[in-house]
């Protein structure tokens, strides 16, 4: 689409911003912490893409910068796609990782391994002042195991084993996750389509 001098990444999640910086070397990125006076928009969409677009458009309008926002989460087939867009607040409070993981394990109790298929989904939206918002999606297929393993990653990573691997994202090296993850795949597509 274009080359941008500076892009706002619409997140207050330090882990996520760190991951994205590693995925976009050579691109000047600024996080939303640089604008503490700007409130986070309410995510009222019913899809990952809709929520990403809400965030990107709000932050671009507030700052005048091109903004990229992601909305991501875990879809578990045996749970009809849950937790889905509610992944960060699956157990109630936003970002309570331990409670979210415990609720997921409880929901899957008794579900056999072969029926624990799942995927991490990352939808990205790019909002540029004066242009229409664009979205794309990255996906990482895998399965949910029955106990937390490893201390790496964050969120549901210690319960998610990507296809083709025996270990969870909580065990696999960050460099491996950086190649496989839903976010890595989405940002690779963004580099190819938006940041040429």
Architecture overview:
There is one protein chain. Helices cover 29% and strands 21% of the residues. The chain contains 5 helices and 6 strands; from the N terminus they run E-H-E-H-E-H-E-E-E-H-H. Strands 2-1-3-4-5-6 form a 6-stranded mixed beta sheet. The longest helix has 16 residues.
State mean pLDDT (0 to 100 scale). 92
Strand order within the widest beta sheet: 2-1-3-4-5-6
- The helical percent reads 25-40%
| Class derived from helix and strand content | alpha/beta
- The N- and C-terminal alpha carbons lie at a distance of 6 Å
Output the radius of gyration: 17 Å
Strand content: 15-25%
Poorly predicted runs: none
What order do the helices and strands follow? Answer: EHEHEHEEEHH
Total of helices: 5
Got a strand count? Answer: 6
For the sheet with most strands, the description reads: 6 strands, mixed
Q: Quick one: overall form?
A: globular
Map the helices and strands:
Elements: E1 7-9, H1 14-23, E2 29-31, H2 48-63, E3 67-76, H3 97-107, E4 117-127, E5 134-144, E6 160-162, H4 174-180, H5 182-193
Parallel strand pairs: 1-2, 1-3
Antiparallel strand pairs: 3-4, 4-5, 5-6
Helix pairs in contact: 4-5
Short description:
This protein has about 200 residues and is of the alpha/beta class. The protein is built from five helices and six strands; from the N terminus they run E-H-E-H-E-H-E-E-E-H-H. Helix 4 crosses helix 5.
Feature tags:
globular, 196 residues, alpha/beta
């Amino acid at each position: 689409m274009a080359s941008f001098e500076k892009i706002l990444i619409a997140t207050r999640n330090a882990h996520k911003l760190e991951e994205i910086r590693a995925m976009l070397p050579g691109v000047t990125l600024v996080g939303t912490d640089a604008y503490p006076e700007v409130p986070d928009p309410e995510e009222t969409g019913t899809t990952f893409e809709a929520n990403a677009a809400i965030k990107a458009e709000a932050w671009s309008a507030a700052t005048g910068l091109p903004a990229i926002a992601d909305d991501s989460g875990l879809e578990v087939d045996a749970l009809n796609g849950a937790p889905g867009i509610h992944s960060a607040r699956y157990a109630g409070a936003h970002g309570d990782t331990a409670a979210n993981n415990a609720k997921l394990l409880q929901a899957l109790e008794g579900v056999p391994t072969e029926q624990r298929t799942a995927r991490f989904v990352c939808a990205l939206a790019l909002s540029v002042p004066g242009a229409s918002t664009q979205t794309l999606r990255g996906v990482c297929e895998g399965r949910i195991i029955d106990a937390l393993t490893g201390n790496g990653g964050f969120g549901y990573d210690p319960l998610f084993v990507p296809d083709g691997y025996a270990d969870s994202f909580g065990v696999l090296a960050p460099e491996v996750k950086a190649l496989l993850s839903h976010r890595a795949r989405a940002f690779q597509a963004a580099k190819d389509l938006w940041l040429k």
